[in-house]
Amino acid sequence: NLVKPQAETIILRIKDHNKLKLSPKIFIDPELYPDVPADKPIQCLGSIVDTLTTFQKILQKLPNGNVSQISTDLFTLLGNLKDRMKSLRCTLKEPANDMSLDAFLENNATHPITLGFLALDRLKQFMQKLIINLDHLKSC
């Protein structure tokens, strides 16, 4: 199974990236960034792909230099999960036209460092949850 080592690699890259952390005195209110999923439940392969697609969309909007390798790793992981969905004959849902996410990204384009830090932190949390819940890769 390639998912676990890929998720672990993404976690390690995020940890390396976040060594350049924001000041610990800065508090980022999660309510200000509701569209960056972290606590979405892992129900099945489809829910994992949906959540990771949202993270991929967010990472693509950030300045490329700092997160390009993480974005590439996430793209590879998503490709593997979509292949798994096809092999299980799961129905690939078309991504929802998430205008609220687009509006959110547009409104926060002037804060790429804060948004990037928050998105990567939440992606790390989701990857950790994914590693614990690998059994959900067996169902659509």
From TrEMBL:
It comes from the Eukaryota. It is found in: Secreted. SUPFAM superfamilies: 4-helical cytokines (SSF47266). One of its GO terms (cellular component) is extracellular region. Keywords: Secreted. Its main location: secreted. GO terms for molecular function: hormone activity. PANTHER family: LEPTIN. Belongs to the leptin family. This is Leptin. The lineage of its organism: Eukaryota, Metazoa, Chordata, Craniata, Vertebrata.
